[in-house]
Design brief:
- Keywords: Membrane, Oxidoreductase, Transmembrane, Transmembrane helix.
- InterPro entries: FAD-dep_OxRdtase, FAD/NAD-bd_sf.
- It comes from Vannielia litorea.
- This is Glycine/D-amino acid oxidase.
- The strands form 3 sheets. Strands 1, 2, 8, 9, 10, 11, 17 and 18 form an 8-stranded mixed β-sheet that branches.
- The chain has helices at 14-25, 61-75, 77-80, 104-119, 129-135, 159-172, 216-222, 296-309, 356-373, 387-390, and strands at 4-10, 33-37, 53-54, 97-101, 124-127, 146-150, 155-156, 176-179, 182-187, 192-197, 202-210, 229-241, 258-260, 266-270, 273-277, 316-329, 336-339, 346-350.
- By secondary structure, it is α/β, with parallel strands linked by helices.
- It contains 10 helices and 18 strands.
- It has 2 domains: 4-69 and 159-230 and 331-390, FAD/NAD(P)-binding domain, CATH 3.50.50; 94-153 and 233-325, 2-Layer Sandwich (D-Amino Acid Oxidase, Chain A, domain 2).
- The model has no long low-confidence stretch (mean pLDDT 97).
- The longest helix is centred in the C-terminal third of the chain and has 18 residues, at 356-373.
Length: 401
């Protein structure tokens, strides 16, 4: 490790690794990159504990386009991230998302979202009750008024595979990764000048990228900046069915999609089992080191909703469970990506609110362009910049799960 770098990235999970990878791969960027990660095992990283899915079914066109690019990268990941002849595979399951609506408000939201999605060219269809019943006969749909289904460009994949692909490619291209922790950020007026590490090393920084996940507010605070991002706990459950409905669909080779019930409970196949989760009844900030699963969510939220939705989910056996953290943007549940308006060499890549994996390719590309060219070139992400935080101007996304 040197004592000075053009770019220092704080956090080396999927966002930090993507930023390092895109910078190192950019032929117009000739600087040096250091990624500081306190736990390279990534045991408690949001990346590792995520359900690792991607969808184009958002309400805002920018989020749709971000995911469309993410999908393109995921589909071509092996070729893009090849290192020394090794092409990583993400084992992408292109089985789509299925949103179910039963109230007039939910129906209106699906219809409005659909206009935004198809306006961007997303392959999403709306189904009435009879069409839904034919496609997925295991579901009880008497109360469903409308469904939204992604026919392509959506599914799930290997979460750590995505992160390690970016990380390995970045290292092969010259980016440096160090196991350490940033404990202090030096400033001179309106510029970040350095980071001090827990090991005692002090590193000069031309530009600092905050990619600290749920701890992003801590990193910002070291530079005297405020960031409305906090850890929110999400518990995921894996269960087995006495009679699995996987293979029963009338479309997509019988494969089931990731279903989002009107209650907010989501469920998808996980190999021969199923993975599910829901929105906590008391969704408050968690301690940064609290990863204790909320067991009651299975009995009180997830299983009741699933058993009501399908007879196949009445006789199930819970196999395992774990909790991870969303890097939750309390302002508007959307990513914050861009420079601080005053401290110009401090760049935010934070607040993904559960969407960091699918949004990491566009984030890495955007940060690389911002540092190299001083502007976004491939996709204008200025609407999700930090300025809206200063102005208390939420950039709303209605399709948050």
């Amino acid at each position: 490790m040197k004592d000075s770098y053009d770019v220092v990235i704080v956090g080396g999970a999927v966002i930090g690794s993507a930023c390092a990878c895109y910078l190192a791969a950019n032929p117009d960027f000739t600087g040096s990159v250091l990624v500081v990660e306190m736990d390279p095992s990534y045991a408690r990283a949001s990346t590792s504990l995520s359900a690792s899915s991607i969808r184009t079914q958002f309400s805002n066109p920018i989020n749709v386009k971000i995911s469309q690019y993410g999908g393109e990268v995921i589909r071509n990941f092996g070729a893009l991230m090849e290192v020394d002849g090794h092409r990583p595979s993400l084992n992408f399951h292109a089985s789509g998302y299925l949103f179910l609506a039963r109230t007039p408000e939910q129906v209106e939201t699906l219809r409005e979202n659909h206009l935004a999605q198809t306006g961007c060219g997303a392959d999403v269809v709306l189904w009435e009750r009879d069409e839904l019943a034919r496609a997925f006969p295991h579901l009880r749909v008497e109360d469903i008024e409308l469904a939204s289904y992604g026919r392509s460009g959506e599914g799930w994949f290997d979460n750590t595979g995505l992160m390690m692909g970016f990380r390995n490619k970045a290292r092969a291209l010259g980016a440096e990764f160090v196991r350490d922790r940033v404990v202090e950020i030096g400033r001179s007026g309106n510029a970040v000048t350095s980071v001090t590490l827990a090991s005692g090393a002090r590193v000069q920084a031309g530009t600092l990228v905050n990619a600290s996940g749920p701890r992003a507010a801590q990193t910002a605070r070291m530079a005297g900046l405020d960031l409305p991002v906090e850890p929110r706990k999400r518990t995921l459950f894996v269960f087995d069915c006495a009679r699995s409905p996987e293979g029963s669909a009338a479309i997509n080779g019988g494969r089931l999609p990731l279903m989002i019930d009107p209650t907010g409970v989501h469920c998808r196949p996980e190999g021969k089992y199923f993975l599910c989760g829901g929105v906590p009844a008391d969704d408050r900030a968690a301690d940064w080191d609290d990863f204790e699963p909320v067991h009651e969510e299975w009995e009180e939220i997830c299983w009741p909703a699933l058993a009501e939705r399908s007879e196949a989910f009445e006789a199930v056996k819970l196999l395992r469970f774990w909790a991870g953290h969303y890097a939750f943007n309390v302002l508007d549940h959307n990513l914050i990506l861009g420079r601080h308006p005053e401290v110009q060499n401090f760049i935010f890549a934070n607040g993904f609110s559960g969407h960091g994996l699918q949004q990491s390719p566009a984030t890495g590309r955007g940060v690389s362009e911002l540092i190299t060219y001083g502007e976004f070139r491939s996709l204008d992400l200025s609407a999700v910049g930090y300025e809206r935080v200063v102005e208390n101007r939420p950039f709303r996304e209605r399709a948050v799960i």
